[in-house]
Specification:
With 248 residues, the protein is an alpha/beta fold. The protein is 44% helix and 10% strand. It has one domain: Rossmann fold (3-Layer(aba) Sandwich). A 5-stranded parallel sheet has the order 2-1-3-4-5, with helices on both faces. A two-stranded antiparallel ribbon has the order 6-7. A hairpin with a 2-residue loop joins strand 6 and strand 7. It is globular.
């Protein structure tokens, strides 16, 4: 059965885009990707992922500055290990692995606006480059960031735009689908747009990268940070939140 699933995935590739399978991937990794494709087909925007949690969540208490972290696996996996997700703080994790900016835009109302946060931290872009929801360009990625930012601001939510994090080929090839030059280009645009839109730019990239690649000792697989990586990121995120709170 496992072999059949793996063969099926190799034939699927990414939805809407032919992909070359990485021979270094394990059966377990292939099964995970197949499961992601099934979820993509049944719930493209990921609207059911946090539906029950959102329904149980009341509005923030008076004087509490709620923060929503919207993102892909970089955000979702934060807190799964020993590096906890901001314990004691009113921060909500709304990350979904392999999600792209158009998918986040679809769920932006239910996973951000309806939760009445003071701030949203948007972390995205890597899955777009990898083609997880079909072909994407730097132009379409930037437009989706703009749309999410404008939606947030129209609802009185302050915005923190996080950089796309680096990748490395430390464990398997990742830079073919996430070229370092494109990551740097998107981050340059994000920094400029944050300044133009009155948002805050959160630079994870510079702290995690060395020679345009993710530092091997800060990642579990070349893409997702390990506990040490998240420990590097946490104070940067907290400073960005404080900076956003100080904006008019």
């Amino acid at each position: 059965m496992k072999i059949l699933l793996a063969i099926t995935l190799l034939g699927l590739g990414c939805v809407g885009q032919a992909q070359t399978a990485d021979p270094a991937k394990t059966i377990a990794e292939l099964e995970q990707e197949l499961a992601a494709h099934v979820r993509l087909l049944s719930d493209w925007g990921g609207l059911t992922r946090y539906g029950s949690e959102n329904a149980e969540l009341g509005p923030p208490a008076l004087g509490v500055d709620r923060v929503v972290f919207l993102g892909d696996e970089i955000t979702e996996m934060w807190g799964r290990g020993n590096a906890k997700f901001f314990p004691g703080k009113p921060f909500l994790n709304r990350g979904i692995s392999h999600q792209t900016t158009p998918q986040m835009l679809v769920r932006f109302r239910q996973d951000v606006i309806n939760l009445k946060p003071k701030i949203v931290v948007i972390q995205a872009g890597s899955s777009d480059l990898a083609g997880y929801a079909g072909p994407a360009t730097e132009g379409t990625i930037s437009e989706n960031f703009m749309s999410m930012t404008e939606l947030a601001k129209a609802n009185g939510i302050r915005v923190v735009l996080a950089s796309v994090t680096p990748v490395c080929d430390c464990f398997r090839t990742l830079t073919d689908r996430r070229p370092p030059g494109k990551i740097i280009g998107i981050n340059r645009w994000l920094k400029d747009y944050a300044a133009r839109s009155g948002s805050v730019y959160l630079d994870y990239y510079s702290a995690l990268a060395e020679s345009k690649a993710m530092k091997k000792d800060l990642t579990v697989d070349g893409l997702v940070p390990n506990d040490a990586g998240y420990e590097v990121m946490a104070p940067l995120a907290e400073r960005a939140v404080v900076q956003a709170l100080g904006k008019k």
